[in-house]
């Protein structure tokens, strides 16, 4: 695993992000839309680390649903505290529920023990322009990471 991808910890994906000047507004505080980018990276790297052989995992998903993608269907977000330039943040992504063609994730942006941002994100699995059931290989990998039973994530 590449340290840039973060790590799996107790069923969650944890990834460090340093706040750069480009992430801030004129006052040195992180611009609200940049948190969305940080969380997108967390979700992407979470998927990257789902399996020991993630290339084979995604090839299996590609065979079952050619041209697949995950797209954000809905998001609720609470901006609780601000981050500033040079802060080191942790983006914590925890799968909450898998249903048919969607995954609900709980994401937190932390600065040490401080919760800065909390979001619930529903991501749809799409292939050929339509929602499709999430391929079994991905479901199995999600269950394995969480240590969940066959019907839960």
Top keywords for this entry?
alpha+beta, 153 residues
Helix content: 25-40%
What can be said about the biggest beta sheet? 7 strands, antiparallel
Strand element count = 7
Radius of gyration: 16 Å
Average pLDDT metric: 84
Q: How much beta, percentage-wise? A: 35-45%
Structural class: alpha+beta
Number of helices, where a helix is a run of at least 4 consecutive DSSP H or I residues: 3
Low-confidence stretches: 148-153
- What letter string, H or E per element, gives the SSE order? EEHHEEEEEH
What is the CA-CA span between the terminal residues? 23 Å
Rough shape?
elongated
Secondary structure layout plus pairing:
Elements: E1 7-9, E2 12-18, H1 32-48, H2 54-64, E3 69-79, E4 88-99, E5 102-111, E6 114-127, E7 130-131, H3 136-146
Quick take:
The chain is of the alpha+beta class. It is built from three helices and seven strands, in the order E-E-H-H-E-E-E-E-E-H. The chain has helices at residues 32-48, 54-64, 136-146; strands at residues 7-9, 12-18, 69-79, 88-99, 102-111, 114-127, 130-131.
